[in-house]
């Protein structure tokens, strides 16, 4: 990993936005970008862009993982995120949908930078399924179908939820119920960041 990316925590705010598929991570991030000047990085979007990039060495691997609802190997995702952080002029980053499993969390914090806080958007599978099927009507995403969605739920519970539990031990996790409207959920999320930047 490049030494440039190993910036001190004082210089940088890195927040992980975690939650099951369809919990509203991207929607909440868009509002935080507007109010707090974050750069929003979606691990899923970065992987999809890389998959479509002509000549990508990871393209086929990423495509197969997405199709199967599996997790892309850590080093691929971390490389893409680190590149984006280094290229950016900002020092505030929201990373949504990452870390997807504990080894990603540990590797990112060791090799790139430690996270400042974690938002965990808590949502029932029933609500998330309804949201994703509705999104699938227009998104054109290959993973917005019921079979893949159910695989993604299983992957989240088995591999991603332990990440939330790991960070909870360090007191970094803010759990936010997210089955209400976008505005109601954001009314719970916004004060967490207002408080964070007041302290800095």
Give the proportion of residues in helices: 55-70%
Per DSSP E runs of 2 or more residues, the count of β-strands stands at 5
Strand content: 5-15%
CATH class: Alpha Beta
Supply the helix-strand structural class: alpha/beta
Sketch the topology as an H/E string, one letter per element: EHEHHHEHEHHEH
Low-confidence stretches: 1-5
Question: Could you tell me how far the N terminus lies from the C terminus, measured between alpha carbons in angstroms?
Answer: 28 Å
Overall tally of domains: 1
Quick check: average pLDDT? 90
Strand order of the largest sheet: 2-3-1-4-5
CATH architecture label name: 3-Layer(aba) Sandwich
Main sheet attributes: strand count, strand direction, barrel closure: 5 strands, parallel
User: Compute the gyration radius: what is it?
Assistant: 16 Å
Give the CATH topology. Rossmann fold
Number of helices: 8
Shape by Cα distribution: globular
CATH superfamily: P-loop containing nucleotide triphosphate hydrolases
Subcellular location: Cytoplasm; Nucleus
Cofactor: Mg(2+)
Keywords: ATP-binding, Cytoplasm, Kinase, Nucleotide-binding, Nucleus, Pyrimidine biosynthesis, Transferase
Family: Belongs to the adenylate kinase family. UMP-CMP kinase subfamily.
């Amino acid at each position: 990993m490049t030494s440039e990316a190993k910036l001190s925590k004082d210089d940088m705010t890195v927040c992980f936005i975690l939650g099951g598929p369809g919990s509203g991570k991207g929607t909440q991030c868009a509002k935080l970008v507007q109010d707090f000047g974050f750069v929003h990085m979606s691990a899923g979007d970065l992987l999809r862009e890389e998959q479509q990039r002509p000549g990508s060495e990871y393209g086929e691997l990423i495509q197969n993982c997405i199709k199967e609802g599996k997790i892309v190997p850590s080093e691929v995702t971390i490389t893409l995120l680190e590149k984006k952080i280094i290229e950016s002029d900002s020092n505030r980053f929201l990373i949504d949908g990452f870390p997807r499993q504990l080894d990603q969390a540990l590797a990112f914090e060791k090799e790139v930078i430690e996270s400042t806080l974690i938002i965990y958007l808590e949502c029932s599978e029933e609500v998330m399924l309804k949201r994703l099927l509705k999104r699938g009507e227009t998104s054109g995403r290959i993973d917005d179908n019921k079979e893949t969605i159910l695989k993604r739920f299983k992957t989240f519970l088995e591999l991603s939820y332990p990440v939330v539990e790991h960070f909870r031990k360090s007191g970094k996790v803010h759990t936010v119920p997210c089955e209400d409207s976008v505005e109601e959920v954001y009314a719970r999320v916004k004060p967490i960041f207002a408080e964070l930047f007041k302290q800095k």
